[in-house]
Write a structure and sequence with these properties.
The protein is of the alpha/beta class. The protein contains eleven helices and eight strands. The chain has one domain (about 10-265): 3-Layer(aba) Sandwich (Rossmann fold). Strands 1, 2, 3, 4, 5, 6, 7 and 8 form an eight-stranded mixed β-sheet that branches. The protein binds S-adenosylmethionine.
Length: about 270
């Protein structure tokens, strides 16, 4: 992991920050966004729905499932509200470790993540492709009791791993290593809902190599990540269909949300 990030190159976490309404992005990311919007005009609304469902899942994991420890892998730039704020609003004793492999994300988190007297929120550098290192990391060991369940958030990060073998191996390793009764939450991009013409146009854009890695997966491919696990209701559905908040109706259709969500419980 580089200690001095190249701030002139496209940074996908900064671009995502632009999509979800943040302020931490540069002209490089805004140019990429402009091009993507020519093919996917609802991309920003889709990203915001992808973020909103993470907050709803965190709420229910804490309030309904009794989770008090959350590992957010591929956490992205700090956002308002962030995972620990939603969790600690329900129980101030909740503990959260944010993990990301982007050094810039680490810089921003270390400047903003707050520890509270009752709970904790820390950042740890790490790569989803090396789950063992994440679980053995200093912050994880200090903040969590790994004898108790942990909810792992894999929100909008697995589709950044293009190699299927690596993506499935990473999730398998987490499934093998997490304490019994832990949860996995996945938010994953799909092109299932797009017309063929749009799919072709997006794939052509990705193939230019100018907009970062992206591997949309089908419903069946996403199901494989959680095969054999108990799924929280309503199962694998679009971000806009996963326990929508009646007070905040979805800003986009299932087709334009381009996303599947699932929360699964480990035995
Ligand atoms: C699209 S953002 C998602 C942010 C947040 N999880 C959300 O859903 O709002 C994806 C983040 O995953 C990070 N990331 C990409 N590949 C990763 C990997 N192999 N391990 C850890 N983080 C990764 C990126 O740096 C980026 O910050």
């Amino acid at each position: 992991m580089s200690e001095s990030p190249d701030v002139s190159a496209l940074n996908t976490s900064r671009r995502y920050n632009e999509w979800v309404g943040g302020k931490d992005h540069t002209g490089v990311e805004r140019e990429s966004t402009k091009t993507i919007l020519t093919v996917l005009p609802n991309m920003l609304a889709a990203a915001k729905e992808g973020r909103a469902v993470v907050m709803r899942a965190v709420r229910d994991l804490v309030a309904e499932c009794g989770i008090r420890q959350i590992l957010d892998i591929g956490a992205g730039q700090p956002m308002k509200p962030n995972v620990h704020e939603v969790a600690q609003r329900i129980d101030p004793a909740c503990r959260v470790v944010y993990v990301d492999n982007d050094p810039l994300v680490g810089v921003h988190h270390r400047g903003t993540v707050m520890s509270r007297r009752e709970g904790r929120a820390e950042f740890q550098a790490g790569d989803l492709l090396n789950a063992d290192e994440i679980l053995a990391g200093d912050q994880v060991k200090e903040v969590f009791d790994l004898g108790r369940p942990v909810a792992v958030l894999l929100a909008s990060v697995l589709h950044l791993i293009e190699d299927d073998e690596l993506a499935y191996a990473a999730v398998r390793r987490l499934r093998e290593s997490l304490p019994p009764g832990s949860y996995l939450m996945i938010v994953h991009g799909t092109f299932d809902t797009l017309p063929e013409e749009t799919r072709r146009a997006v794939r052509a854009l990705i193939a230019t190599g100018k907009h970062g890695a992206y591997r949309a997966r089908s419903r069946a491919e996403i199901e494989r990540f959680v095969d054999g696990l108990e799924l929280l209701e309503p199962g694998i559905v679009s971000s806009v269909e996963w326990r929508p908040d009646p007070a905040k109706p979805p800003q986009t259709s299932v087709a334009d949300a381009m996303c599947y969500v699932v929360v699964a419980k480990l035995p």
